[in-house]
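Section 5: illustrative case.
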């Protein structure tokens, strides 16, 4: 396989993250500042082939309700879009 033919490597996925909804308004503002969020969200582009690792690194690899909001201060806002990029499930995603 040639590198140009690797669809997952050549496809970029945009993660939209925002403060956990269970945080107070003040706490959400601090998180927004930490992640340079504009209008309550930040966008992070990753290669689809590395999506699993990006989600793990950001702690977004589990359901946002599974962890305490003080442990997981950000949530993935566009989960359905990310996991069904291009009409098919993203590789190795939990």
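Designed sequence:
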């Amino acid at each position: 396989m040639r590198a140009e033919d690797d669809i997952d490597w050549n496809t970029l996925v945009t993660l939209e993250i925002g403060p956990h909804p269970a945080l107070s308004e003040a706490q959400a503002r601090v998180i927004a500042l930490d992640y340079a969020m504009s209008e309550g969200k930040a966008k992070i582009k990753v290669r689809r082939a590395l999506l699993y690792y990006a989600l793990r690194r950001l702690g977004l690899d589990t359901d946002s309700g599974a962890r305490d909001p003080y442990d997981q201060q950000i949530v993935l806002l566009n989960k359905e879009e990310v996991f069904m990029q291009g009409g098919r499930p993203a590789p190795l995603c939990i």
